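Chain X:
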Amino acid sequence: MFKIRLCGVFIITFFILAKISFCSEGNPQELEPIVISKQKQFFLNIYSTDADNDQAFNYQSSIENLSNLPVDLQSRALKSSIQADFSLRGGTFQQILILLNGQRINDPQTAHHNSDIPFTKEDIKKTEVIPGASSSLFGADAIGGAINFALSVPKEKKFVWEFGAGNNRNGYGLFSLSDKFKELGFRVSVEDAQSKGFREDTDYKKFTSSLSTNYDFAQGSWENNFGYQEKNFGAYDFYTPDKGYLSREQTRTYLLSSGLNLSHENLLIKPSFLWRRHYDKFVLDKTQLRSNSVNQHRTDMFTPSIYLQKEIGVLGKVGLGAEWGQERITSTNLGRHVREHKSILLDDSTALGEKWEIGSSLRWDDFSDFGKVYTGSLSAKFKFTFAAAFNFGISRSMRVPSFTELYYSDSTTIGNDGLAAEKSWNYETGFEYKQEGFSTGLCLFLRQEKEMIDWVRSDPTQKWQAKNFTRGNVFGVEYVLHNKFNRLFGLDANYIYTDKNTDSQGYLYKYGPNYAQHLVNTTFNLVLPFGQQEIGFNYKKRPGRRGWLLMNSGFNYNLNRNAKIFLHAENILNVEYQDIAGIPQPGRYIEAGLRLQW
């Protein structure tokens, strides 16, 4: 009944409010699109990349761009956009919530597919990293934090053609066209990338296409985004470290996101809908195509929702949201399963005088397989000067197991359909200082985890099995710095220390403690008369392993206002390292290309 009522509310709101907007008196005016999403609420910490800021690194995708933020990007391929896991503050790859325009898009089969985002870097305006306490606002999976990919709205005529080529016979081409006719804007983007790989079974092909439209009217806008992506890549030991399997994986992703952004008599209203379909074909050993070596999966996600926000006196901005979601899987290995959830959200952000900002949220979720769960957050910021502030936060988060953790089975691994949902409490406090050209921040965080899930076994003769652990604590320190020394030279740096204490209960771990105990990113920016130069250093150390230091560089040379050539180099020192133990990473990589834009 809840599903029927929520879909009814969604449909009725969609059409009635659209009718009100289209029938308003007077002609539609050229307005900035009104963005109504939970990202506009008060957050303690948020780090972002902005596509409007020209960057000399000239990454192929927005996922690669995350490598300079406080994110542990665990790549298995030459390019992170082919296959990578995300980790924040010591969380596992399953404990990170992935959002598109504020809507959850985590893959229900396994979070290994969370990097299958079917949009190009021309479609994504900004990537936002929301670690810790504030991220619980968005629902399940945000135990370590959330990463939001915010799509840009087509609002001007723009043509982009870019191509690049590098060693390992790597190359890509990107085309994007956007325009606006009165109130209707659209964008079409197409990207094709391929590589022969840096060693056997590391080749790949990737194709991405997308279509975006936006219609502005007097009281808001209507935005639609559709993306398609297919990947075909060698997956050498991707999920079986040190076994030496020559594996193969093919994925296809369809994603449709639609939403109205409306303002009516000081009330902000956002009904939205998201559908994601994902196909995955995985061959464990492509040299022996036995029936039990080939797995094929199809998953579907449907999420209609509605969010309302109104400013109410001393209460500030009060938001109310309702959501229904369904996840389906049809798999040769995992079987057929359907699960649903329904959610109600209440959030508030307000300023108390000139010194205090307060944010809070309360969320109720009812999962068909895991029952009712309450989560929420409370955060505060105290500004003791115009530029400096202290902040505090506490939140409760949860995660339901993936279909793989519940039902997977092969010769070495077995799922567990009796798994319970993970739960955690996040605590953090910090200091920040911001002024023009300079900002810095220090944060201490603590996460208390309960019923965490990992793949373990008691001795080497047993299969790996997914199990819940009783408790674990994660403590850490996070520091960020931005300094624009002058109009020519700048520095961006961040450092995260994480200590994770979990009772292993005598089990052996499949992947081991695979979080970044020390993570350092430093980027030097130099603006030259003819272009821009960036030099970056990334240091990462995991528990029980040696750390490694990577040096990267990017250079742009402006031919004219519409054209530039670029040179991008990664791992310049040719360091041998394994981001995930047992899976070798590429050595030195150099790429050059041309970008035309007008």
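Chain Y:
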Amino acid sequence: MSMTLRQPVGRRRSIGLDIGSSAVRAAEVVVDGRRRELVRFAQVGLPAGAVVEGEVRDPRSVAGALKRLWDEGGFSGRSVVLGVSSQRAMVRLIDMPAMEGKELRSALGYEIGELLPIPVDQAVYDFAVLGPGRPTGDGGETTQVLVVVAQKDIVRDQIAAVRLGGLRARAVDASSLALLRAVPSSDGEDALDAVVSLGAQLVVVALRQGDVPRFMRTATVGVETEVAARAGAAARVGSAQGRERPEGRRGASKLEPVIEEVRSSIEYFLSHAQGAQLARVQLTGGAARTAGLAERLSSTLGVPVAPATLDLSYDRSALGLEEEQLEEASWRWTTAAGLALWGSQAGVRSPSLVPPEIAQRAQQRRVMAAAGAGVVLVAAGLGALSHSRVDAIDSAKAKTRADQQEAAILQREILKLQSLGQVKSEVQARRQLAVEALANDIDWVGLDGRIVKALPGGVTITQVSFSSSLPAQTTPQTSSPSSYYVGQVTITGDTTAGLPSVARFVKAMTAVRGLGAAWVASTNGVSQPTAAANGRGARVQAAGEMQFSATAEVTNAALSKRAASLPGGTK
């Protein structure tokens, strides 16, 4: 299915902001129908430690750089699309059962817990539906969903730094998606290509098939020569912000971790892509200029590797860049330009990671500002009556009534926003139902793994069966003992070491977390056929070989932690 970026949209201007580890960069793009043009680009260096591995650590230094970037960059507005690039942010393409938007968002909340090792209430996520997915094994319909998720605190920190710098984040996008949006894809719907961004501290690998994002990975591996730009460097890209290129063996050794990370990421995807073949790799980012990197990477991957080009037109003279400055900028503007293209797809919803509480506050401020403007208009209309001619009085009164009606409409919108508290309470109640439903969920897979791991030598399990003795939605009373039985497990096995190994088995099962009261219900010797002189076989018992059947109680220590990890859980 297509996620094309070439559908015509109405004229719009947008500014993308890329907060990197060494500099802040912004690109302004004009989209008018099928014309897409980069009209402004600039960057300002950051002091070392202000941004570490894509996460803001010194918001005041970042805000100062942003103020200078806007003072000298000549951008037309202060509303930006912000990019987030961190190991605590990721993009995944998953298949979900076919369902409506609200139900899909709710269902994705449970999937998010599998993507990030944090509770869902500490994450922010959004999604875009790309189209029908692969049918399930029983022929059920699925939906292919692009999910963007990040830990909430890193997004809040970036938004806070942007606001401190006098800007407003109208959307927060994944930098890996911005890369694919800015760089033209290979020809053909099934062509697989990769865009790789190499920064001072992060390597971003983004793969797509046709126009569909398939795999994204962000790793903390940087080329040492991509050092932090000086804070005093000029806003316009120039030689002052160039990077030294490594020479000799020392430079070559610094390429190895980067090449290995790119290679392992691509090979991991290809191993799960059912015979897909990589067509090419496009490089961007300041560290991608490192001498010999493209050649080494091409030799390792066995595919062409070239500098990334923009899927945008631009005029060097209009950008105000000299030839050398343009060459420098072409390695660094890709992410910012892709962020500026956020929301440029007609009929396709673009995900945004702006936390809901921040978006709601912004909406409330806009509503209140609009209401205040309406009141000012009313006052202005009333003051003008005293200076109007008699034949204009009726017109002024009509305008006043219209303004009052608008103010009333805005007031009703404010009241709707105040009802969000009731919606939140209802959501919390529904979450609690899910928590209670999983309160006695037994982790059978984990228990089975612990049983297999604890088996003593000479014992082989031939069959295991589990059964639960607690209702699915019954929560034990607080007066219950600290340990209680929630089910039973029956194990059938073989041993080659006789009764001593059976005894060791019972002892081992007693030590397994989640098991108790283990005992052997029966044992049987194993006989084997032997040859006889008369040609008739006889059976004799093999020394030490026997079969046994054992039973153990499953204790509450085997309960899963899924309830605690759900929204509204205890984790």
